[in-house]
Amino acid sequence: MQMKTGVEQGVYAILMLTFLPEKAVLPGEVISSQLGGSPTYFQKILRHLVNADLIASVPGKKGGFKLKQKASDIRIYDVYLAIEGKQSLYSSTGLFQDLLNIEEKEVDLLSNLMDEAEGSWQSILKRETIGSLHEEIMKKCPPESLEQLRASIYEKMVL
Questions:
Q1: Disulfide-capable partner of 130 in 71, 83, 100, 139 (CB 3.0 to 4.6 Å)?
Q2: What span, in angstroms and rounded, lies between the C-alpha atoms of 156 and 36?
Q3: What separation in angstroms does the CA of 115 have from each of 52, 86, 104?
């Protein structure tokens, strides 16, 4: 399994919005520029996040994006769902049943194992939030790097 880069970019786009003052928005072009992606691609990612009610889109000349929920309420799993959709990572082909000429689906041992593994990683993504990642950034990143990011965001935000 390989998760799309859109999940990572979506998480970091939302993290950037945590640095905004309450009434400010950040244009999509600024987000894509900061994260090094194409504006068209980022518009799709941001649209998914808006549709999932994680961020809000403010239209117009002074428009942009802002958090719609508190950072502590946005789970990393919510971002994953917004970008990837609700799909299972594993889908049995029925190979095991064919091999042993078995008709019961309950005997697919690999499916059971994969379901358990998927449940485990989902539980971890549900436990962590944008807020918890923001706290980690504040603790672990060099203050000068954080100040540089904050200054860049403040310079380009729209009130």
A1: 71
A2: 16
A3: 25, 14, 17
pLDDT tens digit sequence for 100-147: 666 665 556 777 788 888 889 899 999 999 999 999 999 999 999 999
Beta strand extents in the chain (DSSP E only): 55-58, 64-67
- Strand, helix or coil for residue 157: coil
List the alpha helices (DSSP H) in 128-142.
130-140
Greatest distance between any 2 Cα atoms in the chain:
66
User: Global pTM?
Assistant: 0.84
Partners of 55 in beta bridges: 67
Cβ contact 42:35 at 8 Å: yes
For residue 92, what are the contacts with CB-CB under 8 A and spacing of at least 6?
105, 108, 110, 111
CA angle 106, 112, 115 (to 5 degrees): 130
- 3-class secondary structure, 25: strand
DSSP for 55-123 reads EEEE-STT-EEEESS-GGG-BHHHHHHHHH-S--S----SHHHHHHT---GGG-HHHHHHHHHHHHHHH
Which two structure tokens, joined as six digits, stand for 39? 């504006």
